[in-house]
Amino acid sequence: MCIFVADMELRQLKYFVQLSKTLNFSTAAKDLFITQSTLSHQILQLENELGQPLFHRNSHEVMLTEAGQTLLPLAKQTIIDADNCLLKLDELKNLMGGELNIGVTFSFACIMAETLTSFLRQYPHVKVNVSQSNMADLIKRLENHEFDFVLAFKPLENNPRLESRVLFSHKLTAVVNEHHALASRSSLTLEELQRYDLALPLRGTRARNVFERIIAGTGYEYKVKVEMNYVYLLFRLLRESNYVTILSESTVMGEQGLRAIPIVEMDTEENRMYGCIHLLRNVYMKKSAQEFIRMLDESTSVLRRAIL
Predict the structure, then answer these.
(1) Which H or E run includes 280?
(2) Strands 62-64 and 55-57
């Protein structure tokens, strides 16, 4: 914790501590590389500011007064705290300390894992706190300054408080296991999708919102048997059953046993999903956040993978 000196100067406290150590103005002045008159003047000024003498002086010796004895441990701690402040600021500057708070939607786990591992390997002294939740909750907490940034899809409505930097864009597809009847198909229509049992992301997730918007007004009826927001559990369910889910096109890249089939009506620019880094406008960004975002932007997983 930093202790800031109001009226007295930190330099004066350092002079006081050194004089308390030597109890000799001449010796203390030499140790401090200043003149004896400068030291005497600064000590006198400090005593005047405090309204009481810190040293007994006579022709033979210098001794601490009761006030000086009381001040000495406090002055030493203040100097230590001030030095620690400078050290911690220097550590932050060089990413040798501090904390980074990140909010992510449930489906950003793959991207986060890869970049987080690289970041911690390079900056092991930075403490990283990652929280998962739905987008509405994360954005609200970002606006309350609980996060340095949030990873989520671009919202349908513009938020003037946010700056959203696009990392990638993808379209929605039907995802099945490699043995499913649809696995060999080159494309699929929304009408055909009605024949299959669906396991979908929860309502409120970006993929589900886009899907619901696209099918609105079509009159199609779908057999939604399962809803969940945990992508790894969804992957396991797909591998072990004939369910179909709706995810962005590159979700299955690197996922063995799964296939993504383009859906004709979703293959438009209007229906693309944009994965973004969301930050508050006009708010100072920590250097650790800047570096994490740089690494995330460069990560091949951002270019290769899509999310719920």
Answers:
(1) strand 273-280
(2) antiparallel
In this predicted model, what pLDDT tens digit does every residue of 198-241 receive, in sequence order? 999 988 777 888 899 899 989 999 999 999 988 889 999 999 99
> For tokens 């055909």, what's the residue?
192
Helices 109-122, 287-298: crossing angle, 10 deg rounding: 120
Q: How far apart are CA 95 and CA 32, in angstroms?
A: 33
Q: 287-298 and 66-93 are packed helices; what angle lies between their axes, rounded to 10 degrees?
A: 20
| Distance between CA atoms of residues 135 and 139, nearest Å | 6
Comparing CA positions, the residue from 115, 66, 125, 117 lying closest to residue 93 is 125
Contacts for 238-242: CB closer than 8 Å, 24+ residues apart: 238/175, 238/176, 238/177, 238/199, 239/177, 240/177, 241/177, 241/199, 242/176, 242/177, 242/180, 242/181, 242/196, 242/197
Residues 6+ apart with CB under 8 A from 85: 2
The tokens describing 67, both together, are: 């006030």
Instruction: Strand 172-177: give its sheet, edge to edge.
Output: 245-248, 172-177, 258-262
Q: Tokens at residue 206, please? A: 């970006």
DSSP label of 97: S
Spatial contact of 224 and 200, defined as CB atoms under 8 Å apart: yes
Q: Residue 200 pairs with which residues in a beta bridge?
A: 227
Q: Kindly state the tokens that stand for 90.
A: 């220097």
> What residues contact residue 14 under an 8 Å CB cut-off, 6+ apart?
32, 79
Is residue 211 within 8 Å of 174, Cβ to Cβ?
Answer: no
Other CB atoms within 10 A of residue 170 CB: 20
Please state, as a whole number, how many other Cβ atoms lie within 10 Å of the Cβ of residue 75: 23
**Amino acid symbol at 84:** N
Phi (first) and psi of residue 223, to 5 degrees: -95, 85
* pLDDT (tens digit per residue) in 162-195: 999 988 877 889 999 999 999 999 999 999 999 9
Q: What is the value of pTM for the model shown?
A: 0.62
